[in-house]
Amino acid sequence: MHFEFLLEALSAEKVLNNILPQLITKEHTYRCIIFQGKNDLLKKLPAELRAYKKWIPHHYKIVILIDRDDDNCHELKSKLQHYAMMAGLLSKSDCNDSSFQVISRIAIEELEAWFFGDPDAIRLAYLKVSTAFEKKSNYRNPDNIVNTWETLEKLLQQRGYFKTGLRKNEVAHESSKNMQPLKNRSKSFQVFREGISACIEHY
Q: What is the CA radius of gyration of the chain?
């Protein structure tokens, strides 16, 4: 099986390169296609999916990964599914077997919530971070954290890191290096992981 990941930013590729070896075996392959932000991905997605329709083999799965940000999650998911339908591709949400070609997954509110879902991975990357920060009420549910990347920036700056501003690609790489997917507390990450597993199980 081969995965085509359509991503809004390079930081997402940094994360996938670290965690996918734990989710797929060496017999599976993947490629990341990076867009210039969320708006660029949404703008170009209909044409990208129409292009895939012309050549996509049966063993390919297209995975769209996008941040929710301030959007309504259900409306954003419906938009992605609509784009797939208009391109003549079948979404996972529309069928119960292995015939689906497209999976849409949303990081809530942003990709950085996945880092908060594995606080040990953050601490292994940034040793001065508090040993119990995740027990505070504003960190307990990673997907409920508002302004996720700014919150992560503040957490790291309080311990002396990134005084001139968060370097997202660097943090994405370092924070996901030691991530344990099965332990991640972010619900949106769990849904992403389950989607990848479903592809492999149905293959």
A: 17
